[in-house]
Amino acid sequence: MEQHHRGGTTPVPGEFVHRADPADIIPTGWAQVEENRYSVSARWPASHPFFSPVAGDRHDPVLVAETIRQATMLVLHAELGVPVEDQFVMWELNYTADPGELAVDGPSSEIVAEISFPELDRRAGKVRGLRTSVLMTRDGRRVATGDSTARCTPGPAYRRMRGERMAALGRPVPLIPGVDPSLVGREDPKDVVLGPGDRPDRWQLRINTAHPTLFRRPNDHVPGMLLLEAARQAAMLATDSTAYLPAAMELSFSRYVELDSPCWIGAEVLSAPADPATTVRITGHQDGSRVFLCTLTSPSREPVAAGSCPTARSAG
């Protein structure tokens, strides 16, 4: 089986994963295994200003989602001919991770993501839509599985589609007060993405366009990763537990979340107190319409290693 190795000791270009800071670039290399199937090597940071360990000694499961996103973009740009100027938007993103395989002090820090494309919508030879399937392993052991659907839109077509919304590109957004960082497992107030709401189970999305990770570049709408973090923080507030570990996630977007109108984040705990896992459904609404739906599931706390602090979360 012929393999085409790329990357390796050569750093993965930031424009291929839409990240400017080398510390935010997760993939370390890639290889084509067969048609529409690729292997992407990645390294999860043991410390990071934002994707820091959770529950004392576990890699942040949200790294699974970010790895899917970056690895998919890497293959699209590096192997499938998608220009870096195209707009890449994920509309669905799902994963299931094994909490026992997320230990920071595991045998290896390298993750291998096997990516295939069950669906590739090509128009005039160019990729426009896709469905991705991902298997992540660590030393041959399964860490997580996931899938996503996304669309690639040429820059000029995207600007025409967004019209006057493009005027929001780079425009500062008033920063509302945030909830207490300790309630959402954060130390730095800049990492808080929820502000007080109008009822106990609903909060307002807090948009900090100066955040170095969540707003990696000027954007005309709210990035999906910010909404995923909002869902995680809402789950912590809804369960009154900063040890909430989102080991499984189902996320779908209905439309873009705009920067200039309040977005309300609601949370509902679906599982009973005696259930071994805690499932929370989070919805985002803007201007009276639902903009995204996210379901997170956290396992019972028993698997957390003895001696770790289940409520601690370092912000770096």
What fold name stands as the CATH topology? Porin
Principal-axes geometry comes out as globular
Percent of residues in helical segments? 10-25%
Spatial arrangement of strands, main beta sheet? 1-2-3-5-6-7-4-10-13-12-11-9-8
CATH architecture: Beta Barrel
The count of strands amounts to: 13
Radius of gyration: 19 Å
Largest sheet: 13 strands, antiparallel
Structural class: mainly beta
- Overall number of structural domains: 1
Order of helices and strands: EHEEHEEEEHEEHEEEE
Distance between the termini: 42 Å
Organism: Streptomyces bikiniensis
Domain A-factor biosynthesis hotdog: 16-152, 183-269
Pfam families: AfsA (PF03756)
Protein name: ScbA/BarX family gamma-butyrolactone biosynthesis protein
Textual characterization of the structure:
The protein has 4 helices and 13 strands. The chain is mainly beta and 316 residues long. It has one domain: Acyl-CoA thioesterase, double hotdog domain (Porin). β6 and β7 form a beta hairpin. The N terminus and C terminus are likely disordered. It comes from Streptomyces bikiniensis. InterPro entries: AfsA-like, AfsA_hotdog_dom, HotDog_dom_sf. This is ScbA/BarX family gamma-butyrolactone biosynthesis protein.
